[in-house]
Amino acid sequence: MLTIIADSNIAHLHDYFNEQTLNHPIQVISMAGRDITADALQQYQPDVLLIRSVTQIDAKLLDTNQSVKFIGSATIGTDHVNEGYVSLRGMRFANAAGCSKHSVAQYVMSAILQLRPEYWASNTSQSDKPVKLGIIGLGNIGSTLARYALDLGWEVLGYDPFQSASVINNASVDKVLAQSDVISLHVPLTLTGHSELPTYHMIDADALAKMPSTTMLINTSRGAVVSEADLLADLNQNPERQVVLDVFENEPTVSAELLDKLTIATPHIAGYTLEGKLRGTQMIFDAFVRSYGEKGADILSIKQTDLMADLLPANPYHWSQLKQLPEKLPQFYDIKADDRQLRDSVNEQAGAVLGTDFDALRKNYTLRREWLFD
Ligand SMILES: NC(=O)C1=CN([C@@H]2O[C@H](COP(=O)(O)OP(=O)(O)OC[C@H]3O[C@@H](n4cnc5c(N)ncnc54)[C@H](O)[C@@H]3O)[C@@H](O)[C@H]2O)C=CC1
Ligand SMILES: O=C(O)C(=O)[C@H](O)COP(=O)(O)O
């Protein structure tokens, strides 16, 4: 019997991980990601952990455990996982790189075009001053976002010191900060000692001072990439600055003082489309199958399966159609509705959105559809 502990927010968990798909006796225990603790591991002795971003994988969770062999995170980000520790313990780890890259890029485009609809027409062929979109981090999401921007004829100013120079990786960080109309952050959260150029607080008072107050800032990466204290000070000085946050430094708690000053704020749902979440599950399922396959039939005999196509209903959302009819944007994605829900969740007494309410918004989120980029 194979025992799996899984975050109950993993989309279609039981469609993927069951005795038919795995051709093996299993028990799947699903629980809130924050409840996957050392005590839970002690109680169930799982072979496999399937998590999302809210479960910290570290010595505190695993030091006393000897049963876990595979950990799969159905997320792009891995800052919640101490990969060095996992590897030292001989456990295998997989994430879902790129799973929601279009979803996040579409969230960013929705935010920009909702706030500045005139940008639909502001392209290199129709204007001598096209929109300049600054992108920091040009991996899966940043480079996908660049494709949407270039498709609208915008200019991309991109900065990623770990990628080769290219048509989109074409600027210094200072140039991105000083010359962009909009800056969107797509870096992993990295800390001093773990990266040559850590991203923790990369947007601080110095960086904000380099950005004209007309520059919009969008953060969908991780909250701590932006210093919230410095952002608050900047917004007090430049109340006209438009700031869009999907992630927060003290997540799942969000300060009402900051929320009041943001133009759009959403509860970490930029990647929450049906496709984005399902792809995340498919990717960790595939990694699990590969991982156990390598260990040979003595552990499991697993049938390969690709359920995603079967589980997805027909998709009526085409980027090419939206470009023809920009007024349909709220039907494609009504970002303001997500913003309202977060603001309605403020607990006035606490002066904040409480963690439990933030988590509930995410758990009960109606997954959007990812537009077809054709
Ligand atoms: N809000 C949401 O719902 C979601 C948020 N995310 C976040 O977005 C992040 C980025 O995702 P991907 O693009 O798929 O990751 P990725 O790993 O494909 O790309 C990240 C890029 O950032 C670059 N980078 C690293 N340090 C940098 C620095 N100091 N300055 C500039 N660039 C730097 C890397 O070279 C890499 O090319 C994830 O790590 C995750 O934290 C991901 C999915 C959904
Ligand atoms: O993939 C990532 O990285 C993300 O930020 C996820 O979309 C976050 O979703 P949860 O794992 O917190 O459900």
Automatic annotation (TrEMBL):
It catalyses: 4-phospho-D-erythronate + NAD(+) = (R)-3-hydroxy-2-oxo-4-phosphooxybutanoate + NADH + H(+). It is found in: Cytoplasm. Pfam families: 2-Hacid_dh, 2-Hacid_dh_C, DUF3410. It is an enzyme of class 1 (oxidoreductase). Pathway: Cofactor biosynthesis; pyridoxine 5'-phosphate biosynthesis; pyridoxine 5'-phosphate from D-erythrose 4-phosphate: step 2/5. The active site is at R222, E251, H268 (proton donor). Its EC number is 1.1.1.290. NAD(+) binds at D160, D246, G271. Substrate binds at S53, T75, Y272. GO terms for biological process: pyridoxine biosynthetic process. GO terms for molecular function: 4-phosphoerythronate dehydrogenase activity; NAD binding; protein dimerization activity. Residues 328-371 form the Erythronate-4-phosphate dehydrogenase dimerisation domain. Residues 116-270 form the D-isomer specific 2-hydroxyacid dehydrogenase NAD-binding domain. InterPro entries: D-isomer_2-hydroxyacid_DH, D-isomer_2_OHA_DH_cat_dom, D-isomer_DH_CS1, D-isomer_DH_NAD-bd, Erythronate-4-P_DHase, Erythronate-4-P_DHase_dimer, NAD(P)-bd_dom_sf, PdxB_dimer_sf. Belongs to the D-isomer specific 2-hydroxyacid dehydrogenase family. PdxB subfamily. Homodimer. This is Erythronate-4-phosphate dehydrogenase. The lineage of its organism: Bacteria, Pseudomonadati, Pseudomonadota, Gammaproteobacteria, Moraxellales.
